[in-house]
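Holo prediction — adenosine-5-diphosphoribose.
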Amino acid sequence: MRRKVTVVGAGNVGANTAQKIAQKELADVVLVDVVEGVPQGKGLDMLESAPVEGYDVRIAGSNGYEETADSDIVVITAGFPRKPGMSRDDLLLANYEVVKSATEQAVRKSPNAILILVTNPLDAMCWTALKVSGFPRERVIGMAGVLDTARFRTFIAEELDVSFENVTAMVLGGHGDTMVPLVRFTNISGIPLSELTDQATIDRMVQRTRDGGAEIVKYLKTGSAYYAPAASTVEMVESILKDKKKVLPCAVYLGGEYGIRELFVGVPVKLGSKGVEKIYEIKLDQQERAALQKSADAVRELVEVIKSRI
Ligand code: APR
């Protein structure tokens, strides 16, 4: 049977996500957006590349949710991106309304779907989607860690002049300035990063990773990153649809793991056909634990703002 993925938000991240799903022939895609004509136009344009690219999937665009019925996965990218000088948190209340309405409508049509959230501020938007959908935590997942890790891996590979593929890294915590790149769990084909470069270089790459999103916003001026975010989202979609059981850092709702409760925070998980199939609770040292706690506190602040408005 053909699989179906709905992508809500046909902007930069959404359209690129849809296209990559088609190129990998992972599923039929429905693009949804509030702007009249945009999802239809982009969907048709992508469909017309099928004969050239050689993929056999259906891509449709819509301003409603009828066509999204019985999706296996719903990816939510709808919302407003960052402008220069804006933090992800500035987006909070505007995107809360968008994610709330998108989730309500999507889950009505696809009650068994797995939700992947991309809209920022990510961890607070995941919380919103979990509460609005009433889904179990296994089926509400945030895309952040794969992207933050990809940025860290990129900087390391460039610095050491080695293959990007050989770099394995781990970035935990919230998707914000307090994210926690874990140097101790970062290696190059098994060789710990600390064996290959000095502490000052590592510190510089860690900071650049924390500022990775802002670095792109500064260049683009009118929006935020979308190629790497879309690629990271599709890695998660693929692991779920193919039941690959990849171990990836994702934002998930913690119920006491790492001493954190009732918050979405990035931690390593196993992604398979059931969604989050396992949360790995790795042993952190005191400093790492404190950094993760600080990051969780930043997420909690945003969730409290939402709670006070609903
Ligand atoms: N329902 C559906 N689509 C919506 C809604 C809504 N209620 N509100 C806004 N949108 C659409 C917009 O019309 C736009 O096409 O969401 C799309 C967002 O696209 P872009 O502005 O290009 O933003 P993008 O770069 O894709 O980022 C989207 O992902 O990475 C995060 O921080 C980023 O929160 C932002 C989100």
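READOUT: The CA atoms of residues 144 and 302 lie 16 Å apart.
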